[in-house]
Amino acid sequence: MVTLGGFVLLIPLSPVLIFGWGPFPQLGVAGGGAAVLIYYLLAMLVLGLYMRSPQSPLALRIAPLRWRLFKDMLGVGLLSALGSIQLNLTVVFVTAAVGLFGADAIAGYGIASRLDYIQIPILFGIGTALLTMVGVNIGAGQLDRARRIAWTGAVVSFVVTELIGVTALLFPHAWIGLFSDDPDVHAMAALYIRNVAPVYGFVGLGLALYFASQGAGRVLLPVLAGTARMIIAAFVGWLAVAWYGVGLSTLFLIVGCASVTYGAIVAATMLLGAWGHPARWQM
Length: 283
Prior knowledge:
It is a single chain. By secondary structure, this protein is mainly alpha-helical. The chain has helices spanning 2-19, 29-51, 67-99, 103-139, 143-170, 172-176, 183-196, 200-216, 220-242, 248-271. It folds into 2 domains: 2-51, no CATH class; 67-271, no CATH class. It contains 10 helices and no strands. Mean pLDDT is 90; it is low at 279-283. It is found in: Cell membrane. The chain crosses the membrane at residues 30-52, 73-98, 118-138, 150-171, 191-212, 219-245, 251-275.
């Protein structure tokens, strides 16, 4: 409900603060950021008050700090934070490499890569359920059941994200046309979609198993898979453009290969027994 409330709040509040309607100041682009900050402050307040109320099944109260709990949380949280940093660095370096091809390339890449981010809410929804269900079953000693849950979620994620990619591949201009009528921008965006969208499923597979690995408390190998993705897409891609002068199509092909590598490594670590004994093929 808080998330839905944020959706209702941000749609009118963002343009109000950006353009300065009525008594509100005109903040420009910063208004969008201010609106998001206001939402998170209100969300924190509402959730805090709810967890202090009798209606909350989990009561928020002052308690002594325990190193054991910090150790458990940070053992997963720090590595997961590193994975998020790697993802953002990948975006930064790929954007820098695309920028070497000019403004049309940046615009086309920005439009096409929005499809990548549309998948994030879907994968986070599935991933949140996987994290919880896997964690509960790992805690109960039900390793095989936890693994079946993880693979079921991974298959669902693969199918959903791959369907998005195939649809974008078949009808690229249905998406691109929402943002630009410029033929050069269309061409650049379509180039990205042709090279990257067909392998969206591997990203969905990898992220689903990554969330499941968080529930199992085994995130090192999935984070290392993200490192491999960053090295291939960001550093190899940028060096290929900046030093060897490859074309934009080759750069996007490298990005696609990085996605396949990421999903394949995470899946392989699961199959080879990242949570204990090697996985058995059962759903």
